[in-house]
Amino acid sequence: MTIQLTAFRWVPPFAQGYVRDLRIRWALEEAGLPYEVVLVDGEALASDRYRQWQPFGQVPAYRDEAVEMFESGAVVLHIAAKSEALSPRDAAGAARVSTWVIAALNSIEPQAQTLVQLDSFYAGQAWTTERRPQAQASLDLRLASLSAWLGDKDYLEGRFTAGDLVMTTVLRELVDCGALLRFPNLEAYRVRCEARPAFGRAMEGQMSAFRENEPA
User: Fold this and answer.
1) 97's torsion region: left (phi>0), alpha (psi -120 to 50) or beta?
2) Which of 2, 4, 166, 198 is the most buried (most CB within 10 A)?
3) CB atoms within 10 A of CB 79
4) Where do the structural domains in the chain lie, given as residue ranges?
């Protein structure tokens, strides 16, 4: 069967380009694997049929000839196991890729999301004045460690892998708040990864659906 993944039919402009099906689209584009996108809306997400595929009623969900899955990081690792474009074939190299995927999701993304939410969903509220410097400091500690590891390398492990793919999708969430400006090598790394043709195809795939389904 053709690989299938789910994506939103439409989201508000602030979320466009950031919905996490982008990670799976990008991985599939890098791997050169054909796929089809199943567009869903709120009604579909709430249905019993969809909840049998994605228990939390979110996107993306994924299926191929062998598995049904959800959670974007897990799906990217599944795709990476199929493609040397995303992961070395030796056990040690594959383990490093898995480690960086989990690091992006566990060590960087929670800190990034805290700051993003303070600047967007809670902007202007009195309590954020005290909380934001703490959130910024926590994020900076993690970004400083990542920056030190990356140094002047192009990629985290010397070549592009699924670890770079997921890390980039996390770092790009920080562009608007300017958090990467204190770490020029991380900003250059993000730009380098986003310049990959497969990223461009994945982004266009997501955005084209939103354009086609823009509410009247």
Assistant:
1) alpha
2) 166
3) 27
4) 3-85+198-208, 91-196
- Cβ distance 87 to 101 under 8 Å? no
The CATH class for the domain spanning 91-196 reads mainly alpha
Coil, helix or strand at residue 41: coil
Q: 0.85 exceeded by the pTM?
A: yes
If we measure between CA atoms, which residue out of 164, 151, 152 comes closest to residue 199?
Answer: 164
- pLDDT < 70 stretches in the chain: 121-124, 126
pLDDT, residue 27, reads: 98
What does the pLDDT read at residue 122?
63
The 10s digit of each residue's pLDDT in 105-141 is 999 999 999 988 887 766 667 677 778 888 899 999 9
Q: How far apart are CA 174 and CA 180, in angstroms?
A: 7
Residue located via tokens 């191929």: 64
- For the chain, the helix, strand and coil percentages under 3-state DSSP, each to the nearest 5: 60, 10, 30
- Of residues 202, 152, 165, the one with CA closest to residue 85: 165
Cα separation, 174 vs 214, whole angstroms: 26
**86: closest CA among 175, 164, 167, 22?**
164
Question: Tell me: domain 3-85+198-208, CATH 3.40.50.1820, correct?
Answer: no
Q: Residue 90, SS3?
A: coil
Q: CB–CB of 4/59 below 8 Å?
A: no
Closest CA to 35 of 23, 25, 44, 45: 25
Nearest to 101 by CA among 131, 82, 84, 79: 79
